[in-house]
From TrEMBL:
The keyword Metal-binding does not apply. This is Transcription antitermination factor NusG. Keywords: Transcription, Transcription antitermination, Transcription regulation. Pfam families: NusG (PF02357). Coiled coil: none annotated. InterPro entries: NGN-like_dom, NGN_dom_sf, NusG-like. Residues 1-93 form the NusG-like N-terminal domain.
Length: 161
């Protein structure tokens, strides 16, 4: 079985994941806890780490079975084929979310450029593509999930491949 990336309707990521789990399909929607301030209160809420994306683990032949929920739009494709994530990439996301301060994790949309290796920090031993530098931060495109991660290079060591 492989991990595939589902594109969901806006703000349906968590409900799609819960529904798929309920019907016996392994799904994962990584969430981060953010503190939101309203005029009358401050509350910690869980938001999807990747907007409009949910991960699902199914056999190639069973991929169509996930469309039982109206919140699912389609599978994400990469080079004409459904995008597949390695188990280690899902484990890496889970590890990062369980070990690091969620307020320091940010995700941005992507454009690709040159390759780097991450030598320390939350994404150690991962590779990516540098998009831009923003002060002490570097925006890295991670090809397998087609998303960008902002990393503070004061606390994370990176080197060119």
């Amino acid at each position: 079985m492989n991990w595939y990336i589902l594109c969901t309707k806006s703000r349906k990521e968590k409900s799609v994941s819960k529904y798929l789990e309920k019907v016996g399909i392994e799904a994962y929607c990584p969430v981060i806890r953010r503190q939101h301030k309203w005029s009358d209160r401050i509350k910690v809420v869980e938001e999807p780490l990747f907007a409009n994306y949910c991960f699902v683990k199914v056999n190639e032949t069973d991929r169509s079975k996930v469309f039982v929920n109206s919140g699912i739009i389609k599978y994400l494709y990469w080079l004409g084929k459904p995008a597949i994530l390695a188990e280690s990439e899902i484990d890496s996301i889970k590890s990062v979310l369980s070990q690091y301060d969620h307020s320091k994790i940010t995700v941005n949309d992507f454009q690709s450029n040159d390759k780097i290796a991450i030598k320390s920090g939350a994404f150690i031993n991962q590779t990516g593509t540098v998009l831009q530098r923003q002060g002490n931060n570097i925006v890295i495109y991670m090809e397998a999930i087609q998303m960008c991660i902002k990393i503070n290079f004061n606390t994370t060591s990176v080197s060119k491949l």
